[in-house]
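Example record for the data management plan.
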Amino acid sequence: MADYKNIEPSQITYGWVISQMDCAPSYEGLQDYVVQVHWRMTASFETYFTDIYGAQSYNEVVGPDFIPYADLTEEIVIGWLESSLDVPQMQAGLAQSIEDLVNPPVIVLPLPWAQPEEPSEPIVNI
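Corresponding structural encoding:
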């Protein structure tokens, strides 16, 4: 079995990917009101990568907080997600997935009585 590799939480890099935003074309005089954001949260450590995905719905609220669709930035939408989702719990789940990739809880070993097959012809690298 491979050596266990200790992973510190600070070694995992998290990120957001916004793949789509669903809009109500018109709502109380406002155009292109975002009602749902499709997202992925990613986690990476060295060469290991995992992610989770979902869609977060938002109620149609009119007021001073409305931002026209054309003025939305990735940072604004990520802020919405971070204020409406349980980010620490999501990161904990992603960290566990990374841990399981780096240090698998179950592995498959060859049968101890099985002999590895030898190639019938020598392999020549050219």
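Summary line stored alongside the record: The longest strand covers residues 30-45.
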